[in-house]
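R.M. (postdoc): so does anyone remember the format we settled on? I'll just put the structure tokens first.
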């Protein structure tokens, strides 16, 4: 039986895009033409019938008065029938046009410009930062797993690591939040035996969380020498013998690979990890037998997954910049990009490839191997699709295949889906489940990161 389970849920109900507007921003031309026909043409049709009958009716019918009466009644009847027919056509035309529904959620204000979103996110992080004096670990400054948790909150490794990366992305250093304090907190949150784990994983260090923290520390400027011991602990424990479930998980392997590429870019374990990721690709007969990824890297792989394919593309793109890239690895990465570009669903701001996912990573408990530790992972799929397609390698593939317009539509659709999920710079996981994690730190970080990347790609100062 598989050690992992995957659940799907739509990012939001599928909404068609707005109907095409006329050149002046009003109703579409066919609707306005039918309206004109129903108003103006009905009177003309009625008058034409009146004139025709008045001329052809014989005078012996009963005099001029009778001719006027019959012609008038016929003309009015014809005008009424024409008006009703035009109204019916107008109703059908309007009914066949898509409803003018914006892609965002139906509640709450419309998202503002990106600088407003970034500023609101920073203000929220400042307002909800937690400072705790721990008798054993000292002063802790950071965030819990989710913003807005009830009761006193204590900084966690995952929440603080994502908060630190968000702060670095925002680039706001006005003194209200100090990256150095967050770095110190992450070091103090190390487990007694070294490494880091999620709140639900207990006292056993896990490679995906350790790599996440190490990547954040490296990005904040911590030296490779200071990170070296924790990197060694992470890589030593991340083997098939010691962590088979983790090595079989696309999510775990890509997370470890991305983190170690920042923390130990010259590490000996990086090429084998990349090879394992490439070897775990599968062929999808539904999309021209292009290679993609499922949620597992070993049989049973699971169905082709846009989320896991995007995660693999992001990891391979980053590895190519750091390690270089051979022909076989490049071919796998480019196949993943082509697979994402072949999304058959529309509209792209609410297509099936953007469905959020829930995933479970199950591992034997170290204190009782007969029982399992379960890590619940939630994936903000639209952000991963955006990040994968916004990579330089993805754009090169699109240009090479003549699919730049498709690339742009998919990127803009993913960015629209990301943007519509925020309120005041904070994203919510609103799946109706019982976890209570309504505003996960990782979701806000991924949302802001995707919007920032999209803004940079679409900024063209030379175009007027």
């Amino acid at each position: 039986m598989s050690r992992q389970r995957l659940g799907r849920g739509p990012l939001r109900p599928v909404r068609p895009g707005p109907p095409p507007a006329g050149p002046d921003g009003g109703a579409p031309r066919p609707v306005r033409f039918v309206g004109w026909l129903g108003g103006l043409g009905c009177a003309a049709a009625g008058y034409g019938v009146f004139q025709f009958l008045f001329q052809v009716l014989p005078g012996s019918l009963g005099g001029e008065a009778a001719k006027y009466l019959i012609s008038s009644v016929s003309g009015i009847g014809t005008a009424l029938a024409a008006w009703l027919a035009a109204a019916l056509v107008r109703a059908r035309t309007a009914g066949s046009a898509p409803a003018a529904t914006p892609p965002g959620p139906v509640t709450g204000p419309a998202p503002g410009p990106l600088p407003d979103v970034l500023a609101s996110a920073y203000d929220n992080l400042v307002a909800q930062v937690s400072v705790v004096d721990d008798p054993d670990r000292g002063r802790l400054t950071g965030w819990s797993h989710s913003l807005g948790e009830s009761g006193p909150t204590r900084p966690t490794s995952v929440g603080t690591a994502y908060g630190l990366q968000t702060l670095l992305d925002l680039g706001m250093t006005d003194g209200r939040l100090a990256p150095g304090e967050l770095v110190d907190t992450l070091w103090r949150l190390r487990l007694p035996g070294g490494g880091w784990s999620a709140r639900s994983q207990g006292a056993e260090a896990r490679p995906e969380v350790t790599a996440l923290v190490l990547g954040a520390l490296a990005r904040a400027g911590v030296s490779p020498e200071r990170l070296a011991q924790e990197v060694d602990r992470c890589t030593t424990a991340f083997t098939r013998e010691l962590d088979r479930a983790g090595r079989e998980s696309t999510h775990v392997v890509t997370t470890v690979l991305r983190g170690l590429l920042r923390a130990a870019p010259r590490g000996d374990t990086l090429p084998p990890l990349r090879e394992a990721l490439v070897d775990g690709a599968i062929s999808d007969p539904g999309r021209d037998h292009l290679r993609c990824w499922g949620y597992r890297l070993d049989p049973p792989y699971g169905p082709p997954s846009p989320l896991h394919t995007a995660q693999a593309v992001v990891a391979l793109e980053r590895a190519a910049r750091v390690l270089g890239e051979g022909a076989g690895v490049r071919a796998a990465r480019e196949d993943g990009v082509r697979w994402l570009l072949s999304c058959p669903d529309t509209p792209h701001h609410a297509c099936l490839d953007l469905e959020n996912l829930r995933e479970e990573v199950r591992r034997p408990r170290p204190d009782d191997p007969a029982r399992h530790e379960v890590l619940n992972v939630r994936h903000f799929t639209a952000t991963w699709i955006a990040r994968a397609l916004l990579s330089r390698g993805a754009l090169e593939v699109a240009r090479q295949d003549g699919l730049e317009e498709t690339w742009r539509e998919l990127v803009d659709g993913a960015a629209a889906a990301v943007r519509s999920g925020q309120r005041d710079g904070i994203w919510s996981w609103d799946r109706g489940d019982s976890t209570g994690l309504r505003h996960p730190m990782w979701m806000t970080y991924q949302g802001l990161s995707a919007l920032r990347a999209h803004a940079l790609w679409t900024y063209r100062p030379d175009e007027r």
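R.M.: ...and that's the designed sequence above, right after the tokens. Also worth knowing: The first strand starts at residue 4 and ends at 9. The radius of gyration is 30 Å.
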